[in-house]
Amino acid sequence: MEEELEFGPFRVIPSQRRLLRDRKVVPLGSRAIDILIHLIAHAGEVRTNREIVKHVWPDTVVDEANIRVHISGIRRALNDTQRPPRFIANIPGRGYAFIAPVTKRPAPPGENSAPAPCLPMTDLGTGRIFGRESLVETISAHLGHSRLLTIVGPGGIGKTTVARAVIARDRSEGLVLWVDLSSVSGGHLVPTVVASALGILSRTDNILREIAAHLRTRSALVVLDSCEHLVGSVAEFAECLLAETPGLRILATSREPLRASGERVHRIPPLELPIATLTASAAMRSPAVQLFVERADGCLGQYELTDEDAPYVGGICEKLDGIALAIELAAGRLETIGVKALAQSLSDCFRVLTLGRRTALPRHQTLRATLDWSYMILPKAEQSALGELSVFRGHFSEEAAAAVVSGGNAEAVLASLVAKSLVVADASSGPTQYRLLDTTRLYASEKLMETGATSAVMASLAEHLRIIFEDAEHELVSASAADWTRNYAQHTDDLRAALEWAFAEGRDPLLGVRLIIAALPFFYRLSLLDECLAWVPRAITDLDAHPGLDERSRMKLYAALGWPQICRTGAPAHGIAAWSQALRIAEGIGDTDYQLRAIWALWVDAVNRAEPCLGLTFAERFRALASSSPDPADPVIGKRLFGATLHWLGRHAEARDHLQQMLAEYAALPASRHSVRFQFDQNVTARIVLARSNWLLGNEEQALCEVEDALAHAKEIQHNLSFSNALAEAACPLALLASRDDLAIHYTALLKEHTKALSLDVWNRYADCFEAEIALRKGRPDKCARQLGMILPTLRDSGFTLFQTIFQSVAARALRDMGKHVDALRVIDSAIADCASSGERWCLAELHRVKGTILLVDGLPNARERAGDSYRRALAEARRDGAIAWERRVNASLHALSPPCRMPEGDQVRIVPSAGGGRLPEPSIPERRELSAMNNRSQAHCPAAGLPTEFPSRLRQQGRQALAR
C-alpha cells in the first residue's frame, strides 16, 4: 500500500514497515511492526493470539509469549503504558484490539520508498543522569575492547539508565539493538526474542544459527536488559553467539553476573550521599540529592532545595541507601506530603514509595515490586537465608551469617546473594564484611516474619552476640583500645535489636539477662551508660523472680545499676543502695573483684557528696582489700584513691606525691581493663587530680600541661567518659583559675558538646556553671547569679556537691557585684560552714578571701576590719595547706586594702615564690580587675583613701602599675 496510517502523533507507512513520529523514525523491530500494522488494519476489532501468530509467523510454530513481548515493545514505543491505554487494549481471555481512530491518506511523494532495513534501537531517551559520568565513561572505554560486559547492581540502582547512557555515548558504526528480557518467562525464548527484534524470520529449528548468520558480517552492539531471571540461558546464548560473530559486542544488565566466558563485570554503587548536611548548597553536591531535587521539581512544577529542607532530604537519601529508583519514588510523594513528614514516614517505605512513573516498567512502579522481582527468582534456600540475614542491623561477618542461617552451607548462600546484589560485600579494610541495604533488609524482614521463624533466628543472633561479648571482655587486656572499639562497635545495633526482642512480651528474658551481663564491658567501654541502665532494671526484675538462680549475675547487674551516681542527676541514693547490695552479694560469694568495684563506687559517692573524711575511710578499706587481690594493679589504683582524697582534704603536696608515684607504678604494669572495672581510664583520672594539686601548689604551667596530656590520652584511647571527666574536673576549672578565659571558653564548649551527646547530666551541669563564671568575667553578674541559682539546687538534690563550695564562691561574687551584699554573705557563709562539717579544705582559703571582698564593700562602718579578719583567716588556711596559688590571691587582695589592716607579726604579707622561683608574679588580668574594682569601691566608701603612703614604695608602685594596666 502506497499510503500511510495516521493515529495520534504517529504515522505508519506499511510499504516501508516504518513507524514515525514528527517525521522521525520510532525504533521498532520487524515482527513488532508487522503486529502493529495487522492491528491497525483491523482497528476496532479484537484479534486473537492465534490470528496474530498466523499473520506474523505464518509458517512457524511460535510460543504465544512472543506476542506479549512484542506488544510490550509496541506500547513502549507508542508511550502507551498508562491506564487506560490510548492505542492498544488487552481484552482478557480473547486477545488485543487497536482502539484509536485511524486516518488513511496517500504517502507524500518525498518519502523514501526503499524498504527500511532492520531498525537499530538507539533512540532510548536517556535523560539526565546524576553521579554516573565517570562510570559511563569507564564502561564505554571497556566496552571498546570487551565483547561481553555486564552491568550489575541491585534493583532500582540505575543499571538500565547507565546502559542507555553508554549507548548514547558510543560513537561506533553499526547496528545497536536493545532487547528487554524482563517480560520473557523462559530461558528458551531468549534466541526467539532477539531474532524477533532483528526482524529475522526463522526458517529452521536453530534460531541461534540464523542470528549468527545475520550478524556475522556486521558490526553490532546488542544490549540484553534485565537478565537476572535468565542468567544461565543468557550466558549460554551470549557465549555461543559471540563465538560465531566476530564483530558483535554484548552489553547486559543484571542483578547478578552471567558468569559467562570472557565476561567483564561492572557493579554500580549507590548514588553518593551527602556528608553532614548543613546547607542546601552543600547537599546539592551529592548526586542522590540532585536526583531527588530534579524529580521533586518535575513533580511539583517548581521546587528548590532550601537550607531548612536540606537535612531532611539528606536523611531521605541516606535512609534509601542512595538507590535511584527509591529516591525517585520518594520525590514523587511530595505532591501529597511535605519533605519533613516524608522523612519521618520512611520507616514504612514500602507503603510510602508506591507512586512510580506510569511509563516505568511494572516492577519499577513501587519499591516493593522491585524487590519482589529479585526475591521471586531466588531458590527457596536463598529466600530463607535472605530473611534470616535481615536480623543484622549493620555489617556482619561470614561467621555471624553462619550463626543465623539455617540448613548449613552459609558460605555458598552468602556468596550467591552477594552475586545477586541482595547482599553488599566490603573487603576494603581487613576481613570481608557484609550488609543488607536498609530497603532490602526491611523487605527481607517482612518475609522472615511471614514464615514465623523470626523468634528462632533472633535467639540465634542473641546467643551469637553473647559469645562475641564474652570473648570481647577477655580481649580488653590484650587489644589496644582503638582496635577493640573498631572490632566490636559494629555490633551495637544488633545488640539493641536482640535485647528488644528478648525482653518483648517475655520472649526469652533469661537469654536477655545473659546477653546484658556479657555486654556490660561493651557498654562501659563505649560509654553507652544510658542504654545500659535502661536494660539493667528489667534484667534484675527477671532474676529477682528466680531467687538463687544466678547470684553472680545479680551481683553484676546491681553493680551496673549503681553507675548513675557517677554521671547522672537523679537519685544517687538508689545507686548507693544498688552498690551496697552488690557488695553484700560479692562478700557472700567471696568475689574480691566486685568487692573492690563496690567499695570504689562508695568512695566515688562520698567524694561526689564532698565528704572527703568518709571518702578517706573507703579509700583505706580499698587499699586493705587490694593487697589480697590477684590483680597487681589494684594496690596501685588504691594509691590513686588515697591521693585524690588527700587533695580534697587540702593535703596537696601529699596528694601530688602519691599520684606521681601511682602513675609511675601504673605505667610499669601490663595493659589492663580498669576503665571497665572502675569506669574511667586510671591514667587520665589520676592526672586530673595531679593537675589540680600542681595548680594549688603554685605550678600553673605544669598543671595546664598535665591537663593537655590527660585530654590527649583520653582522646587517643577513644574513651569518652574519661575525656569528659578530664574536661569537667580539670581542664575547665583550671583554665578559669589560671585566668585563661579563651581556653576556658574552648574547654567548656567541648564539655557541653560531649556531655550532651552522651547524656552525662552532671558534667553538663558543671559546664553550665563554668559558663556562668565566664559570664561574670564578661561583666554579666546577673546572668551568672541566675544561672547558678537554677543549677546548684539540682546538683545538690542529686548528691553532687563536689564543686558546690567553689561554685558558691562564684555566685557570691556575682551577688556582690550586683550590690546584694547580704545575699552574697549568706551564700559564702553557707559554703564555709559546709567545709567545716565535711572536712573539705581544697578551696577553703579562697572562700574566706571571697568573703573578705564582700565585707570590704558592704558599707558597714567596720567593713574593712571584718574584711581584714577574713583575709587573715584565708592566709592562715592557705599556708596550712601549702596552697601557694590561694596565698597569692590573698596577697593580691591584701594589697588592695586601704589603709592596710594591722596584722600580727607572723601574718604580715610576704612575697610568695613563683613556680619557677623568684618573687611574686604580677597579678593576673581577673585579679587586676578585682583589685581595681575593690580599690574604687573602697574610695567610694572612704574618699580620702587611695594607695596609702604607708605602703612600701615597691608595693605601692606595683599596685599603681597594675591598676594602670
Automatic annotation (TrEMBL):
<dbReference type="InterPro" id="IPR036388">
    <property type="entry name" value="WH-like_DNA-bd_sf"/>
</dbReference>
<protein>
    <submittedName>
        <fullName>Winged helix-turn-helix domain-containing protein</fullName>
    </submittedName>
</protein>
<dbReference type="InterPro" id="IPR027417">
    <property type="entry name" value="P-loop_NTPase"/>
</dbReference>
<keyword id="KW-0238">DNA-binding</keyword>
<dbReference type="Pfam" id="PF00486">
    <property type="entry name" value="Trans_reg_C"/>
</dbReference>
<dbReference type="InterPro" id="IPR001867">
    <property type="entry name" value="OmpR/PhoB-type_DNA-bd"/>
</dbReference>
<feature type="domain" description="OmpR/PhoB-type">
    <location>
        <begin position="2"/>
        <end position="100"/>
    </location>
</feature>
<dbReference type="InterPro" id="IPR011990">
    <property type="entry name" value="TPR-like_helical_dom_sf"/>
</dbReference>
<dbReference type="InterPro" id="IPR016032">
    <property type="entry name" value="Sig_transdc_resp-reg_C-effctor"/>
</dbReference>
<dbReference type="InterPro" id="IPR002182">
    <property type="entry name" value="NB-ARC"/>
</dbReference>
<feature type="compositionally biased region" description="Low complexity">
    <location>
        <begin position="954"/>
        <end position="965"/>
    </location>
</feature>
<feature type="region of interest" description="Disordered">
    <location>
        <begin position="933"/>
        <end position="965"/>
    </location>
</feature>
<dbReference type="Pfam" id="PF00931">
    <property type="entry name" value="NB-ARC"/>
</dbReference>
<feature type="DNA-binding region" description="OmpR/PhoB-type">
    <location>
        <begin position="2"/>
        <end position="100"/>
    </location>
</feature>
